[in-house]
Amino acid sequence: MALPTRLPDPVLPRLTGGPRLRWGVLAPGFIAGVFADTLHRNTDQRIHAVASRDGARAQSFVATHGIERAYDDYRALVDDPDIDIVYVAAPHTRHLELATLALEAGKHVLVEKPIAASAEEARTLAETARRTGRFAMEAMHTRFHPRTTVIERLLADGALGEIVLVQAELGLGGVVADPASRLYDPALGGGAALDLGVYPLWFHDLVLGSPSRLDVSGTLAATGVDEQWNATLHHDGRALGEIAATMRCWTPSQAAIGGTEGRIHLDSRHPQPGGFTLYDAGNRAALRFDDESGITGPQGLCRQAAWAAQHVADGLTESPLHPLATSVRVLEVVDAVRAGLGVAPLGGVAA
Question: What CATH number should be reported for the domain whose range is 22-140?
Fold first, then answer.
């Protein structure tokens, strides 16, 4: 099959002028601040309440982001009748607990990635969402960037021919190996797999789905969390995935898809919004996609909220773009990576 002469148009949510939800935030840490900023900057979704176990922290968050209500109790927020949906931004090990609290209270949920600390927990969360009839989605913002929808269409059309290899890696520099840091605390789900590896593993899943087996090697920190690793994901047939994550240094953080009829190379820092280049079978640059939305870096978190609002307005209980089964599949691979490295069990999964 010949490469297309033009790229498909991206599928975009309505950031303004579409369905609106009244949001609550549980656990106002760093990522919650990024989410609140981009939500209020780029959309007409609005956060109406925030809850923290530390009342002063909640008060500081509402003052910074112009939010109406601060609670020092999570249940008070989920019981607030003026809240439609809750964004869970706590550490991974509390995602299931707090999402369940919100779902049982009748709220929809958007849960920061990874949706839970293990595949077992993710399955439990999905079952609770279905039983309560509420909308639930993982906040995998990368899924909702414009270029992802273009790549998805190219793959569906078979533009690259048979997919042979998927490569994706992510590295974070400047992380101090402090046992008190969340990233190095095994009790809080620290380690490269859950914090960083989930992004390239999700990208691999988008292209190839679940592997039939994997080989992994890497190093553990003194606290026992996975600090750096690379994994080869094998698929029935000839396709391979080469995935890596590290908390020890910055890397190009690139991703690529290799097929028999062409390849796609994503720009650096692939979890964030950006472009890609499509190459033909002769390795000649054929087409270029650039994200012209003006939304860059962490500001891309706004799209997941706009899609969630649209899905809820459509009466859906999960996203057709990023269903709960996808979140479970990716965590199954995360579990396998952690087990292969000898990381201690977390969230009820035997490693």
Answer: 3.40.50.720
Could you tell me if 204 and 233 are in contact, meaning their C-beta atoms sit under 8 angstroms apart? yes
Contact of 22 with 68, CB cutoff 8 Å: no
Task: Report the pLDDT value the prediction gives residue 1, as an integer from 0 to 100.
Answer: 64
- Which of the following is catalytic: 65, 107, 113, 147? 113
CA 226 to the chain's CA centroid: 19
Residues pairing with 210 in the sheet? none
DSSP string, 241-255: EEEEEESSS-----E
In this prediction, the residues of the chain whose per-residue pLDDT falls under 50 are 347-351
For residue 41 the two structure tokens come to: 């900057």
CA distance 129 to 106: 10
Residue 61, classed as helix, strand or coil, is: helix
Structure-block tokens of residue 153: 């269409």
Residue 113 appears among annotated catalytic residues: yes
Predicted TM-score of the model (pTM): 0.96
Asked if the 143-341 domain carries CATH number 3.30.360.10, the reply is yes
Spatial separation of the C-alpha atoms in residues 197 and 17, rounded to whole Å: 35
What pLDDT does 17 receive? 97
Specify the domain boundaries for CATH 3.40.50.720 within the chain. Answer: 22-140
